[in-house]
């Protein structure tokens, strides 16, 4: 069975995630064991018995989500899945690149641990906040941001009905109020430690690019649709520079899904915690059928269909 893989980003984590995969699939257990060995962190402990507060820390969330995602992808491929394309939301793009062979799983753990550390530090240094705007067109949201004093911009184009804005807290609040006045159904402040995918992440992006400069990347073995444009990454792309830019640029998820559908990728599996990409996929296009895979039972069910 040919399928595209979708990978979630930070915010999808929850206590206990991946425990049943670890217990029921030896390959998943190997992935979790490798994560701890490579990073020196108790990924199993944080994922299986850690608190929501511990998992919410950027460096912990990113590493645990990446591990969960790659455990599922590894089991899927061993069970006969033929992967035709990949995409990921924010952090999930690292998972997609790893699934596409851009770097090894060992390198992936090192990269994601570094990414989470740098983003967590940038958030602590620069502050900022984010809010989800529902029921207003993206161009109207962009206009509300442009009309607000201070720094605020649209950063996550999640679905036609939901866009996330980020920046200075006062500017985010002011833009949110403008969005409500313009007809938005709701504006929901997000419980985040910083303004991700904004210029506040630029120091982290530059540091990541610099530290990845000596990393040996491999040619992609399948198309990876990137957050920056919603289109597949070009062959020979400077991945170190790309990954740095991706941290401080908007996530164009609506364009990503629409372009995948236009290119004929109509069957997909969301690999990792949560159901955000599955739900947003339905809102973006009814043509793409997305299987939600986060538990051992989810994985067994789809493997039985191959």
Account of the protein in words:
The protein is an alpha/beta fold. The protein has 2 domains: 231 residues, 3-Layer(aba) Sandwich (Malonyl-Coenzyme A Acyl Carrier Protein, domain 2); 62 residues, 2-Layer Sandwich (Alpha-Beta Plaits). The protein has 14 helices and 9 strands. The chain has a 5-stranded parallel sheet with strand order 7-2-1-8-9, sandwiched between helices. It has a 4-stranded antiparallel sheet with strand order 4-5-3-6. Helix 13 links the parallel strand 8 and strand 9. The longest helix has 22 residues. Its EC number is 2.3.1.39. Belongs to the fabD family. It catalyses: holo-[ACP] + malonyl-CoA = malonyl-[ACP] + CoA.
Task: Describe the secondary structure blueprint for this structure.
Elements: E1 2-7, H1 19-24, H2 26-39, H3 43-49, H4 52-56, H5 58-78, E2 82-88, H6 92-99, H7 105-126, E3 129-134, H8 138-147, E4 152-159, E5 162-167, H9 169-181, E6 186-189, H10 202-211, E7 224-225, H11 239-247, H12 253-262, E8 267-271, H13 276-284, E9 289-293, H14 296-304
Parallel strand pairs: 1-2, 1-8, 2-7, 8-9
Antiparallel strand pairs: 3-5, 3-6, 4-5
Protein name: Malonyl CoA-acyl carrier protein transacylase
EC number: 2.3.1.39
Catalytic activity: holo-[ACP] + malonyl-CoA = malonyl-[ACP] + CoA
